[in-house]
Amino acid sequence: MSKRLIYIFLILSFAPFCMRAEPIRKNYYAHIEGLRDSALKSALHDSICGGVRYDYGTNKYHTSNNPPSWQKGDLKAYGTWQAFPETDITEDGRVWDMYSHSVRYYPLVQGESGCSLNIEHSFPKAWWGKTENAAYKDLYHLNPSDARANQTGKSDYPPGVTDSIVKFDNGCLRQGYMKGHPGHRVFEPADEYKGDFARAYFYIVTAYEDYDWADKYSAYLDNGSYLEFRPWLTELLLSWHRQDPVSEKERCRQHVVSSIQHNRNPYIDYPELVEYIWGNRKGESVRLADLQCTEETDYVPPRATDFTYCPDELADMPLDTLINLSCASLAALRGVATVTNCQSNGTAAVTMGSGSDDGGIVFDGLQLPDTAYLLFRASPFNSSQRMQLDVYTDDVLMESIREEVTDETRNERYHLITLPAQTRSVRFVSVGGSTASRACLQQLLLLTKSPVTGLNETVPSERGIHKIFKKGRLYVRSSHGLYTVHGIRTD
Fold it and tell me: pLDDT tens digits, residue range 48-69?
């Protein structure tokens, strides 16, 4: 059985909502005409250092609005955390997390999922000494981040390309030794976010060029140069900026942030400005008429992409998604499965076990006419030291997944199990009982060529069935017949 998983990039309309677009103010960039090098950077600084910054918020979230809606009063009361449901949200309501593939939905409350979220400074706050200044509260480099990816993976390491010795890898963010420099640790985001990180870094050292960077990080930053970065980091950020151009997701995020802070990231509006300051056009004077603005009608950004993992043998099959755990809470699962000793962690995960008892999920009464595939993500619970997750089909043990928590362990791994035709039951058991060895399921997909009958009646929620998953179909048998929908979610 092949377990090699590959990216299948799906061109889906998962762009965040551009609900509060604030256009570029007239003449906002007019004063940079004819400038170059350090004078150009300082002029940009004068434009973007102003505006509004709200207090840095903890992962406390005001949940009275459903769907969540940003209000000025909410930001004043709850700080920057309150902005994320509009700055970092996909079309289907998921948290847009550039640090992990974990699936979470707004509104959020602290501790909602097996692995909680942090507010992460993409440009590490430690690099200026952690002073709670304007940069500390600037949404242009604040993002919701999976806590483990932030704390164990990224930390305050610089960006870089990792070599084969990886200390952390959750499939979206890697941390390890820098390629060619085995003594230096770096973090490496997914390719589709490298430009986002680079432009955030260029923005911070422009908006806050008057800051003194901490001596401890002099290997990355240079207080004596207007370029701010050491040459190796400049070259890395330039390469990421070039290979990952401004996307629709990035433009939409800027629309919302600018409506809150009333300032812009010039390297999103005019990506070529990066070249005039750090790149291959240093020494040249800017002529705005020669630059392409990403807000112009003829700009064609790369289409927003979302992705899933798919095994090689499934890539060309006409598959139907029957059960999507990441879109279903425990309440929805009760309609199609027997769930014992499990805890629902919002809509993002199910923790297998409670107290000292093992936990399990059983899908019974299935009628699989053909060979099917079970594709799922699992990880040790956030406070566990290890996990053991056994998977049975028709009471036959198919696989026993064992994983120790070390710096080299992925936070979440994908697993593929082939289900023989005529399979009638699938059972997951988290073995070991205590929290020390508990498993956490983040996603569960049952993939078949044809519909599965025999599912019990299910009513996902009083609000009915919501279309939020756009690949494949979910078949639900109810008293009204066999329904084909895109996904289920309970609020």
Answer: 999 999 888 754 554 444 434 4
